[in-house]
Amino acid sequence: MITHLQDTVTLNNGVKMPGFGLGVFKVEEGPELVEAVKAAIKNGYLSIDTAAIYENEEGVGEGIRQGLQETGLSREELFVTSKVWNSDLGYEETLKAYETSLQKLGLDYLDLYLIHWPVERKYKDAWRALETLYKDGKVKAIGVSNFQIHHLEDLLQDAEVKPVINQVEYHPRLTQKELRAYCEQQNIQLEAWSPLMQGELLDNDVLSAIASKHNKSTAQVILHWDVQNGVITIPKSTKEHRIIQNADIFDFELTSDEMKQIDALNQNHRVGPDPDNFDF
């Protein structure tokens, strides 16, 4: 369990990844995006997560450049993730998509590159491309997103390199206990997207009561629940005060009873697509 914003988790290939970062899903290109990324870096965030389909890699890259310039940090101190989209899940197509993402971000390499969705019959060719990028030293680590257990089992049958990450929808209404246990067994780190369930949990009575006991917000309780479960999390925000608040979660601990109360909120409810029924 990480204990402060700059703490890292050691992935199965030895690469150290910050346990907390900024996600930019649905943040459009423009000054707001640039300022959000810059504000995150300025306030101690060292991990930024984007994807080709978000269509905001250029703004993320500009925010990174401005953030590094303002803070004096080096590129090597940041951890940048992007993802290959479903329409590019072929061997050559994925290699090309990686170069396109690098160009848009204005970076020489990515720290982590993920297959965004387990599109049937296509992700194995894409994984071979990720393995090539990894073996050639063009990316520090490779992983997947939205993979169920059966997808991981299928991938691992032929993979030469094990995924370091499985980034999935994860929040108190979708605790994914079986998947989390499987990933722990396989030494694949779980990472949460949509940890706040796109805001749907912020008025929950159970979470609000726990938050009141700790003098924290509901969002801070949820994000700490992620961290206390050993799950990397990347909440999205474009407001600097919210970016700061989201990371202010390391000065309290949830009791085992509170953790159980939060776990009990599970309904296996998704706000995003079902990975078994999603192609594009």
Rg, please?
18 Å
Q: Please count the beta strands (DSSP E, at least 2 residues each).
A: 10
The outline comes out as globular
The level 1 CATH classification is: Alpha Beta
Lateral arrangement of strands in the main beta sheet: 3-4-5-6-7-8-9-10
Low-pLDDT sequence parts: none
Q: Write the element-wise H/E pattern from the N-terminal end onward.
A: EEEHEHEHEHEHEHEHHEHH
Q: Can you tell me the CATH topology?
A: TIM Barrel
Count of folded domains: 1
End-to-end distance? 35 Å
Please give the share of residues in helix.
25-40%
| Largest sheet composition | 8 strands, parallel
- Please count the helical segments: 10
The chain-level mean pLDDT equals 97
Quick one: CATH superfamily?
A: NADP-dependent oxidoreductase domain
Organism: Priestia veravalensis
InterPro entries: AKR, AKR5G, Aldo/ket_reductase_CS, NAD(P)_OxRdtase_dom_sf, NADP_OxRdtase_dom
Active site: 54
Site (Lowers pKa of active site Tyr): 83
Put the structure in a nutshell.
Substrate binds at residue 116. The chain has ten helices and ten strands. The protein is an alpha/beta fold and 280 residues long.
Could you characterize the architecture of this molecule?
Belongs to the aldo/keto reductase family. This is Glyoxal reductase. Pfam families: Aldo_ket_red. The active site is at residue 54. The record marks 83 as: Lowers pKa of active site Tyr. Helix 2 packs across helix 3 (91-105), helix 3 packs across helix 4 and helix 7 (205-214) packs across helix 8 (218-228). This protein has one domain: NADP-dependent oxidoreductase domain (TIM Barrel). An 8-stranded parallel beta sheet has the order 3-4-5-6-7-8-9-10. It is built from 10 helices and 10 strands. Helix 1 links the parallel strand 3 and strand 4 (47-49). It has helices spanning 31-42, 57-71, 91-105, 123-135, 149-158, 177-186, 205-214, 218-228, 240-246, 256-263; strands spanning 8-10, 16-18, 22-23, 47-49, 79-84, 110-115, 139-145, 165-169, 189-193, 232-233. With 280 residues, it is of the alpha/beta class. The chain is globular and about 55 Å long.
